[in-house]
Amino acid sequence: MTELNLSTRTSVTLKVVAVGLLVVVLLIPAGLIMVLVREREGRRNQAVAEISESWARPQAISGPVLVIPVRLAEKDNKGKKLYRTVYASFLPEDLEVSGRIDTETRYRGIYKAAVYTAKLTVKGEFASPDFDRLSPGTGEILWDQGILSLGISDLRGVKDIITVNLDDQRILLDPGTGAATYLDSGVSARLPKGSFRNPTKATHFSFVLSLKGSQGLYFVPVGKTTRVSLSSPWNAPSFRGAFLPDSRNVRPDGFDSNWKVLHINRNFPQAWVKAPNDLYASNFGVDLLIRVDHYSSTERAIKYAILYIFLTFLAFFFVEFFGKKQLHPIQYLLVGSGIVLFYLLLLSLSEHLAFNTAYLLASLGVAGVISGYVQGALEHLGITAVITAILAILYGFLYTLLQLEDYSLLLGSLGLLLALAIVMYLTRKIDWYNIERKS
Fold this sequence. Notes:
Elements: H1 2-9, H2 12-55, E1 59-75, E2 81-90, E3 94-108, E4 111-126, E5 139-141, E6 147-152, E7 163-166, E8 169-172, E9 174-175, E10 186-190, E11 203-214, E12 216-220, E13 225-232, E14 237-241, E15 247-251, E16 254-262, E17 271-272, E18 284-288, H3 294-302, H4 305-322, H5 329-350, H6 355-378, H7 381-403, H8 408-426, H9 435-438
Parallel strand pairs: 1-12, 3-13
Antiparallel strand pairs: 1-2, 1-5, 1-6, 2-17, 3-4, 4-11, 6-10, 7-8, 7-11, 9-10, 12-18, 13-16, 14-18, 15-16
Helix pairs in contact: 2-3, 2-4, 2-5, 3-5, 4-5, 4-7, 5-6, 6-7, 7-8
């Protein structure tokens, strides 16, 4: 009976099954750490949203837009005359925006967000409104009720009074988009008397817009030709939207960018009576990113947990097999716990340190604990050196995978092929049918 029990305890097959079960069990805490990563990332996003809400949200500028009502006379079924008012909207022939975005970093606990103050100079011209091409019907043009509207997505960010120069006249913009209901939020003003009535004269406009915002600044290309030039001391811009810059220069001390968008590049006309639905679909601009990629990097690292637990256990299995050392499943469990703890260390350290530094400290800590445990348990410097080298190779390989996002699948596949080739080489002459009898 004693002989049978001893044979069972030393059975290679039983050891493989036990180690396999341990791999599966250790995936449970690895999965919990994955949930923790997403929870911490959610807290970060919430903190950024709270900072943005307190300062001002991302800004989108659309306009200026000229809106002039037309009163149409119609008759009902009984021949009675009725009046209906439609609103004709006209976009600028030329729109030019230039400005500088000054940034600062605001904190909420350990989390931070980029906020900015932008000073924009806006100028351009409107052609004389051409009502004939809109065909709203025969009616009275209500020139004195025309308005000039400017879309600003978050009015809390407006720092100074907005005064628009229309040729030699000045108008003060007030909150509300007026008849330009297709603008989500903004300011507007009644047109000065007599403006825009000369059919052969273009009207020039200009104004300065001082604006606070957070994370991003966007523009809707309402001009027949829209030009935008931005500069900033922020060195981590992300250019997004329907149009990328025609030229950009990102430097360690900031960036410069320039866009030019034509009216034929977007999907709405220069004038309309019925507002388009996709006005904001054509916006473009820049996001001011804070390089916080440690959550996504940690999450990617955890996805390799099963592979690294398996390869580490495989290394211990061969040490046990070729080194004639007996390891208890509890010892495998302790080593596997150290591997899982690496991901928790990586997450917690990366919230306070650069990711590369956090990775180095976490991998050194876990590798040092495991190597020390192996030396204490087996008392064999050669085996300890082999295990330490294997851990160094594994964590170095994982770091390379995390850095090479585009080639991580290719590199990972080649790494697995190499690991399989090594295992096949080491076990090529083992008689697996007789191994238990020999043991």
